[in-house]
Amino acid sequence: MVDSDDSGPSDNFSMDPQLERQVETIRNLVDSYMAIVNKCIRDLMPKTIMHLMISNVKEFINAELLAQLYSTEDQSVLMDESAEQAQRRDEVLRTHHALKEALAIIGDISTTTISTPLPPPVDNSWQGGRSRRPPPSPTRPTVIRPGDSSLFD
Known about the structure:
single chain; mainly alpha
């Protein structure tokens, strides 16, 4: 039997409180699940894009570049050092040898330098055991406290 009431969807919300709590709990769980899915997709999307890009580059290298390299007549020419690289290598080797020599000279200087021992500490026993204040600082004013006679000694 079909109800012929003209009741709208607003009457559907007159459920009992326990059912409303269950619906709210399910809604919260679905929202939490969707937040987790959204976070996972945001995390995986850049990784997936990089994986696809690297896979495509790898396929290109295997298909095109290796074929071009192997199609050259003399592959030993590919491994020859250019004149600019040879010049750069020679400069780096000269710098390396100069630095090694400078390090050896510095090492010789530090081992052959004679250091004089420190003088013995000053004997303050003649002052009579009373400690004196250091001289006043010219930039900081001296504060005189009542009963402090050590300033006038």
